[in-house]
Amino acid sequence: MRRRDARPQGTGTAGPTGARHGEDADGTPRHMNAPKGLPLWLKIVTGVVSVALVAGVAFAAFWFIRLQTNITKAPLSAGETRNAGDPLVDDKTDRLQILILGSDTRDGKNAEYGSTEDSTGYGHSDVMMLLDISADNKRVNVLSFPRDLLVDVPQCTDRTNNQTFPARSGVMINEAMAEAGIGCAVDTVNQLTGLEIDHFMMADFNAVKELSHAVGGVNVCVSDPVFDPDSRLRLAKGDSLVEGEQALAFLRTRHAFGDGGDLGRIKGQQAFLSSLTRKLKDEGTLGNPQRLLQIADVVTQNLTVDEGLASVPSLLTIGGRLKDIDVSKVAFVAVPTQAAAADINRLELIEPQASQLFAALRADLDLTTPGATAPPAPSESPAPQPTATTPPAPAYDKAIQPVAVANGSGVATRAQELMTVLTGNGFAQTVSYLANPVDQTVLYYGPGFADVAADVATLFGIPAAQVQEAPGVAGVQLYVGTDFSSGTAYGAASVPSDVVNQTANDAVCQQVNPLYIDQQ
User: Fold this and answer.
1) Residue 328 is part of which domain span?
2) Which of 166, 375, 411, 427 counts the most CB atoms within 10 A of its CB?
3) H/E element holding 72?
4) Do 270 and 125 have their domain in common?
5) Could you give the C-alpha distances from 175 to 117, 150, 159, 239, 519, in angstroms and in order?
6) Phi, psi angles (nearest 5°) of residue 27
7) How far, CA to CA in Å, does 467 sit from each of 195, 443, 478, 486?
8) What is the pLDDT of residues 265-305, one digit of tens each?
9) Are strands 156-158 and 163-165 parallel, antiparallel or unpaired?
């Protein structure tokens, strides 16, 4: 006998309309239909976008992990003047100064360029350049330091073992990092220039080769066919596209250019970087994230940076800041040097030109505009001006006041420049003579000439502390020191003439040393 509650065969339970649970009235399973208000095409698009986002995140994560793993870092300073882990600047918006170092270590892939002894310690800085990016990203200075330059190295501590090395005097600048590491090179440049470096990047020989491959070669020019057996550079006369070993040889050659000294080598390096800058700019590489990532991958495998720069976003920020730069405002400069008095095979700074250059850098002046000036720093304020409570200086006839200019600046034409200012302001009785070099400018005056001295001090901005009475002086004497070697306002920084070797807009052909002209 059939049970009264017997149900039709199947697993579903019929609803009021006869459809089973989980089915629409037409028998279609509900999970096959899109929710009300969400068309099927939109659901498909949503799925595709979700997959794309996941893929994008995975891609970004891959590059972030890959590049971050590549990076090697070291302390920014070897001294006690700063906490190397603290952020010093906003890398995106502030003026940025980065010390670029090329290590001559022969470890690992670099072993073919030297012996085991060359690989001991931290190595020497084969290349040392200061990259200075203006806050508005409109100007870049690249300042080169010759490796043979004799400098004073401050006390430095190796952060890996806390060993402290005493300060040294008169040593080659490329030895600064040999004992205590890269931070000691940073501290040395800070001490030499009065600047405060924000970051450093140090690359080895392999980095140059790999980078030149990554960009598809760099165009260089030589005046004659050249062969240098030491660096292995061999190029035909005229333009050549160099990459790999030949790119490295072009940067390393120490004898092939100029007179065979370090200054010729620096000009070759600057020409190479100028050409590289133009190429990256013309091809839009710095504005192409994918291309930039490829180059960053190559570079970071052979790069050591400070803790503040040891992240992928920080490195990409630097590239992003340079993408729109006007190449005519990328200035390549070499520190003014001459043969050292103690050793003609070494170099020393030329004064006052070097101090003038460093002052211009500290004032953030445009080095491509010779003569550009900045006002004196507050600590170098000129003599105080008369106030309402100060009685005016007694009237006198400027035309008959004896004013002398003693030129102790070391610049032959300096006295004439200052005399022109004096005569243009009514001091007709001016004379000049060559004097022994002095470091500081002082304005001397004899009895009865205090009022004249005050006016001359105001004219040139000489601080009151440097205006002195001297009974032996007849009238007023402006004794010009090396601290006032240019301009007409004492303490004002100005851009020296002929300080820029070339800009990135210039294609310069290197003059080959006659001894290294290839005879084949």
Assistant:
1) 70-80+88-371
2) 427
3) strand 72-74
4) yes
5) 15, 10, 17, 35, 36
6) 90, 0
7) 29, 5, 9, 19
8) 999 999 999 999 999 888 888 777 777 777 877 777 888 88
9) antiparallel
CATH code of 426's domain: 3.30.70.2390
**Rounded Cα gap, residues 406 and 444, in angstroms:** 11
Structure tokens at 307: 């803790």
Residue 437: count of CB within 10 angstroms of its CB: 14
User: pTM value?
Assistant: 0.75
Same domain (yes/no): 188, 112: yes
Whole-angstrom distance, CA of residue 148 vs CA of residue 263: 10
- The string of DSSP codes covering 199-267 is EEEEE-HHHHHHHHHHTT-EEEEESS-EEETTTTEEE-SEEEEE-THHHHHHHH-SSSBTTSSHHHHHH
Residue 270 in any domain: the answer is yes
The reported pLDDT for the residue numbered 324 is 86
CA 48 to CA 456: how far, in whole Å? Answer: 79
Per residue in 368-404, pLDDT tens? 998 788 766 554 444 444 444 454 555 799 999 999 9
Contact 73, 306 (CB under 8 A): yes
**d(C-alpha 154, C-alpha 190), whole Å:** 10
Q: Which amino acid appears at position 513 of this protein? A: N
Q: For residue 244, what are the contacts with CB-CB under 8 A and spacing of at least 6? A: 209, 212, 213
Domain contains 25: no
Q: What is the DSSP letter of 149?
A: B
Residues 343 and 410 reside in one and the same domain: no
Pairing of strands 140-144, 330-334: parallel
Asked if 414 and 356 sit in the same domain, the reply is no
Q: Are residues 121 and 201 in the same domain?
A: yes
In this structure, of 14-23, 221-230, 309-318, the range with the lowest mean pLDDT score is 14-23
User: For the purposes of burial, counting CB atoms within 10 Å of the CB of 82, is it exposed (0-12), middle (13-18) or buried (19 or more)?
Assistant: middle
* Number of structural domains in the chain: 2
CA distance 468 to 464: 8
**Pairing relationship of beta strands 403-407 and 476-480 according to DSSP bridges:** parallel
Residue 498 backbone class (left: φ over 0; alpha: ψ -120 to 50; beta: rest): left
Classify residue 371 as left (phi > 0), alpha (psi -120 to 50) or beta: left
Cβ–Cβ < 8 Å for 262, 148: yes
- CA-CA distance, 207 to 223, in Å (whole number)? 27
